[in-house]
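User: Hello, beginner here. Can you help me understand these amino acid letters and fold codes? It all follows right here:
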Amino acid sequence: MTQLTQIKAYTKPMIANLAKLGISNLQGLLLHLPLRYIDETHVTAVRDLRMGESAQVEGEIVHAEVSYKPRKALIARLEDASGQLTLRFLHFYPSQINALKVGNTLRVYGEVRSGFFGYEMVHPTCKAVGEKTIVAETLTPVYPTVAGLSQASLRKAIGIALQQQGEMHETLPAALYADLNLPSFAASLVALHHPHPEVSLRALENKSTAHWRRLAFDELLAQQLSMRKHYARRRSVSAPQFKRSKQLISALLKSLPFALTSAQQKVALEIEHDLTQAHPMQRLLQGDVGSGKTIVACMAALQCVENGWQVALMAPTEILAEQHYRKMLSWLQPLDIKIAWLTGSQSKKDRDTALASIANGEAKLVVGTHALFQEAVRFKSLGLAIIDEQHRFGVHQRLALRQKGQPEPHQLMMSATPIPRTLSMSYYADLDVSVIDELPPGRSPIVTKIVSDARREEILQRVREACLQGNQAYWVCPLIEESEALQLATANDTYALMQEEFPELRIGLVHGRMKPSEKQAVMAEFSAGHTQLLVATTVIEVGVDVPNASLMVIEHAERMGLSQLHQLRGRVGRGAAKSTCILLYQNKLSETARARLKVIYESNDGFAIAQADLQIRGPGELLGVRQSGVPMLKIADLERDVDLLEAAKAAADKLLQSYPAEVERHLDRWMSTAGELVKV
């Protein structure tokens, strides 16, 4: 791969500036694609200008002055044979005053607006024009850039790169692209950096031209190839093989007061089969809120324990970790299986006791938070790591837990945030995915209502009635302390107001800044039914399971993401009582907030909600991508390019098998700037 330092035409300052964009070689420069384009291929007469449209005008400066009223501005008038146009600059330098001297001939480009003296352009781009100045023959690209690197410098640097024909070779067999009617790599680069003026600007900026599609396919294919290579590499690593459980799982199932759904049985068999293999399982178990993932994870743990190995279950919050611990205790204590509990807030004595039982192998199952992957934690024989809400952990945290076992332990990741199919196909292509796609019987459907904050009195009355009838309720607030910028209701204030409003009710308060022991005490009171109303922040988003809670009020619902609203709503409807979730909103709703609330109102299906969330927010936030170790797609779009994703997925394994050297060249081109994928 040719480095920029190897090409004489690139100066040291230019190389230094390009490095700020993460560009160090010709491939990175060629794939630094335009954000948008401007049409400087023809000159428009002043009389033909249209309001709101961008245009290029050429003429002579007939007037220029620095005006100080109503505010400081550089104002010039440019004249051609058909009329005059005002140019206005609110921020300017002495050099611009010189460029706009009366008598200078300029070519200006900008959006036409209505001004006091007729048409005007504010901050247009200006070029001095001589007799030999020609009009551009292609659309002018506008690139993402950094301070110190002008558009002109970038265009020049990319122009030099486009002359290096050897850098634009095909990496993969031409037949692959012919089957998909996609143009060559070289033609695509030239067409995107220097598009012909007849190409639709809208199609270019929507990235729907054949040349954009070619590069989107290449990017998706590189992602698939990289993921499949990781998948194959993991299968070459050895892991403990566990025989199928003969006693513990059947003993557990007999003791349960409910039967597994067919979906739970199906995914339990998939996991059981994985654990019998000699390579580490890497399975993502996803299921909607309340679909019963924990019991499936418990069955996997028992298969491991019966074979003489230890299991670690890691959750992102103490509330969720403790929920798992109590559930596992109730299921496994009767089977005489010792469970250890490990969090950052334990006393030294309790922690030391737990650490000793983990190190000597007495503790067969260890449940905890981030504390599980600390250096002091040593397992005697870790065979399975279960990670709940895996997207909340950083890539290094998940890796640190996996490194606690020798040989490498099996890994089961769980997520209650359903992952849209396109996201699963692209960013999780290196994992096996199991889906629990049905809810246990006896769950009541949740009725969702969207209510303006102006009707708060009605809602308070509704809460009073529900609690006095023997049910329990949540009141969720988005912040703990008052923020002047956001002016949101706070948990502390709401708690005080609720105590005034409902003197006859027992009310609890839980938020993220409380000590873990305080949080646990409040949650225990609520779970036991001693507290009727729980005022909480979004700390209760996952893992809280109180079947008697049938009403939830979410303040400022318009401020929250779709998956968060869906998770919160899933805290009710866990018993047989009819459940309601009320979304309180402030009167001025943005279009995005309106779209979010509409989705959550119309659907209880986590997958449909996740798909809508992907459209509204994009993949980055759904993945927790800053932590995931996966480079984001820069060109392809999972919604727009789903057909290309399907084609890339279909081609990946065949290419890895038949064209290994070509695959390496393709990955070298597309992944060199993103770095190797580190998916754990």
The two ends are 28 Å apart (CA to CA).
